[in-house]
Each structure stands twice: as structure tokens, then as C-alpha cells.
Amino acid sequence: MSGRGLVKRIDWFTVFLYGLLVFIGWINIYSTTLTDPDASIFNFSTSYGKQLFFIIASLAVIVLVLFVESNFFERFAPIFYVGCLVLLVGLFPFGKTIAGATSWYDLGFFNLQPSELAKVATALALAKYLSDIQTDIKNRKYQLYALLIILLPALLVLPQPDPGSALIYFSLFFVLFREGFPLYYLGILLVMIVLFATTLMFGTVWVSIALGILTVLVFVFKRKTAKIPLLPLVVTLITSVLFSLSVGFVFDNVFEQRHRDRFALWLSLEKDERKLEEIRKTIGYNTYQSEKAIESGGFFGKGFLEGTRTKGDFVPEQHTDYIFSSVGEEWGFMGTTTVIVIFSIFFLRLIYVAERQKSDFSRMYGYGVISILLFHYFINIGMVIGLLPTIGIPLPFFSYGGSGLMFFTLLLFVFLKLDSNRLRDGL
Fold it and tell me: Which of 133, 134, 232, 301 has its Cβ near the most Cβ atoms within 10 Å?
């Protein structure tokens, strides 16, 4: 496709929304990290200066992606995926530890986080695999292979430990459901989440008793109308109890103490008020201060560079995972609502663009992009306002970070490139 044809076919509305989110994010990074009002915005020793450099680097990524042939991404998707798996494995002997997680390669001038690149590669590989098998998605063998594509990078990221990034890979399950995976898989996933939380709250014994009573009630009252056999009910009961038994081991041996403390705070697991208060002052400190910063903004906010809690560094690392709290303090309810509306329009636009694809690969990859970005958005906002435990997931296009911004940009613009090519492919 010629340069002129590419310019005409690119979805400029999505590009505009992307640029708007990046700009608002940078403004808030500037506000939260500014210490010298006379310093230049091009001072690359500052966080806002570095982020500006990453924005410029992201523009280079955009240009590169848009001038690569679209079929390149589909053809080499398996190679990208395997290469990222190798990078994730290489972190164990060669990775750099930052904030307790060995998730980075130290390249000197830049820290590379391969789990971010692996999200792009996994979305591409899943779209490639699903588009190749097409109607065979109903075959359980192929379903298993699709699940493995998602699980392999997640299992490599989890022990770094980086449970937040590992969780994002599971967002790609929504691509599977969009393409025809049986909905009972989603039911199983939701049941596992509920079992995990209730086991932590009440213990395996009480959960097992409740499951046993529920099984008996279902069998007694539904066996005639629903014709439910006894054997599947018993197998489901035993499997659920075994899963409940495994929760304690995973919680105590896979999660680190900081993760256990976050769940303890979120689910009110700690019964000792003194210990709970201590957790609030340590693990829950960021969320508490974030909530207070947002509340203090009121309806219209305190104004740009006027956030007292932001200037007082009440929220640690506010320019990264808690960047949304600076929006609440300085721009108030109107500012947070505006950001949420922009994100909502952005996601609705991506759904529209995905649905207009006639290429299976492009549509499936598009839904992979939507799933990853939407998970990041919901989890980050939920964490900042205290609805979810602190997990450590950045807000797309907003939070400070070179790896995050460039790979979010790569994720999005690969999709926009595929979309721009739809006419040439006879779409």
C-alpha cells in the first residue's frame, strides 16, 4: 500500500484518542514529578523528560509499524511468540531485579520488560492459531492448544514474581469466548475466583461443607426437571474441594508476603486489629493516600500544579501506577469523569474497528488488543480507588514507563495497520 493510501485508510479517530490519552498522561506525570518550575520540559534527567523521550520513541515505533507489510505480523506471529518465551526464560539467569521482581533486562540506557512485549506476541500468536483452525475451535484438543498459548507466558511471568502482569494474559480468554469457546469455561473461571476468595475468607472446611450442601440441594430439587446425573455432581464437588485445598498452599508458597498482605487487607482476612492497622499503614498506604487525594479534589479540582497531596508526595510513586489519583486531586470529579469518558469512547471505537474486520486474524487480534487494554484500565482504576487490591498494573498510555508506553503503542498500532489494509485484502 502506498503512503498516500495508508494515510487515507488509517483510523484517525483512534489515533486522535490515543494521542489525547498520551498527552493528558504526560501532563499529569509532569505535575506529579515537577520539582523545579524553571527546568526545561526537555530535561531528560527528570521523569517527565524521560517520558517525553519515550513518547518520541513511540512515534518512531508507529512509523515503523505502519510501513511494514500487514501480512508480516500474521506470517511471523509464531516466531515472535517463541522469541518472547525465550526472553522470559532468560530473565531467570540474566534478569535485573526492580521493586522485588526480576522482570527486566538492563540494556544500559533502557530497562526492557519482556512481559510487555510478550503480551503483543501472545495476542498475535493466539489470533494466528485461532484463524488457522477456524471451525475446529469446538474440538477440545484445539481448545487446549489455544489455552496453552495463553498460559505459557503467564506461567513464566508469575514466578518472577509479577502476578499483575501474569493476570493480564488471562484477559485473552475473552478472545476465545468471542470466537466460540463454550461459555462454561467462563463459568469455571468465575467459580475458581469465587472459591479462591471464599477459601481465604472462611477456610477449606466451611467451603467444603457449603459445597456439599449445595450439591445435595441441586441433586434433590433439580434431578427431575433438569435431569442432572449424580456422578458429574460428585466429580464437580470433589474437584472443587481439591481446588479449595490447594488455595492455602498457593497463597502461602507462591505469593510473597506483600501479596498476602494485600489480599489480607482487601478481604479483611486479618482478625487482629493491630496487625490490620499495621498493614493499612504499610501495604495499604498507597491506596489510602490515593483515595484521599481524589476526595480532596472535589468537583472541579485544585488546579494544575496545585495538588497539595501531590506536591507533598503523599502518594508514593504517584506518576506510575497511581497516576489517576493526580487527575482526581488537580482536576476533580470533572477531570476524572472526562478521562473515563475518553477511555470509554476509545474502547467503543476499538470494538467498532474490530467488528468491521472481515479477516479472521485481524478481528481476533483486535479483540486481543481490546482485552489487554481493558483489563489494564479496569484493574488500575479499581486499585487506585480501593475497589481492588494493589497489584501493580499501569494505566495504559498514562502511567510513566518506557516499556509500557512503547509496547502499548506497538499493540495498538499493529491493529490499526491491519485495519488500514482491509480494502487491499478484499475486505
Answer: 301
